[in-house]
TrEMBL record:
One GO term describing the cellular component: cytoplasm
Designated name of the protein: Alpha-galactosidase
KW Membrane (keyword) present: yes
TM ranges: 12-40
Family of the protein in this entry: Belongs to the glycosyl hydrolase 27 family.
Organism the protein comes from: Chionoecetes opilio
Length: 201
């Protein structure tokens, strides 16, 4: 599978955030990956992304030992998936659940792939995405266009293709690509790369 179709498979949108002094500042808002020029109708992002993102409420709480109901773990995202479904949000169009920072293990695996924290996501990310898809929800994930994420987990630089392939294998629909440890000039390059990886359709 080519990189182009992988990015397509992941239906990669690009949203860039800057983390400054702990406050979240929208840098570019949400930019459609495959839209280089206005007016392209490819079926993607006809509305803004709507759903639930973990960060503002749960931040980087990884302490599942002392705070099991509020930590970043697969059970938190399964619970939120159930709520979007059963409380009617999904049917109103809020149909996306998105992981934010701190889902990863501290290091890539021996093949250089991202891996989830094994204690907090014991079933693996593919299984979590399947759980969402079975409920008619889209599955969003988080990475950072730098050497590290804001919380110091592995960033995407040097691993763009591997991570695109991994996300596609996991059935990811959406990627929040953050801007920590990234220079504005790098972000510009990242944008052209993302557009480059998108298929002409
Ligand atoms: C990322 O790491 C590489 C290799 O150490 C380095 O050359 C590069 O400048 C770093 N990029 C940023 C944005 O810090």
């Amino acid at each position: 599978m080519s990189l182009l179709s992988l990015w397509n498979a992941a239906k990669l949108y690009r949203s860039v955030f800057l983390m400054t002094g702990g406050s979240l500042v929208w840098a570019l808002g949400v930019v459609l990956c495959c839209v280089g020029v206005g007016g392209l109708e490819n079926g993607l992002a006809r509305t803004p992304p709507m759903g639930w993102l973990a960060w503002q409420r749960f931040r980087c709480n990884t302490d599942c030992v002392n705070d099991p109901h509020n930590c970043i773990s697969e059970s938190l995202f399964m619970q939120m998936s159930d709520i979007l479904e059963h409380e009617g949000y999904r049917d109103l169009g809020y149909n996306m659940i998105s992981l934010d920072d701190c889902w990863m293990a501290r290091h890539r695996d021996a093949q250089g792939r991202l891996q989830p924290d094994p204690h907090r996501f014991p079933s693996g990310i593919k299984a979590l995405g399947d759980y969402m898809h079975k409920r008619g929800l889209k599955f969003g994930i988080y990475e950072d266009y730098g050497n590290y994420t804001c919380a110091g987990y592995p960033g995407i630089l040097g691993h763009l293709q591997t991570d695109a392939e991994t996300f596609a294998e996991w059935g990811v629909d959406y990627v929040k690509l953050d801007g920590c440890y990234s220079l504005p000039s790098d972000m510009d390059r990242g944008e052209s790369l993302a557009v480059h990886y998108c298929p002409a359709k």
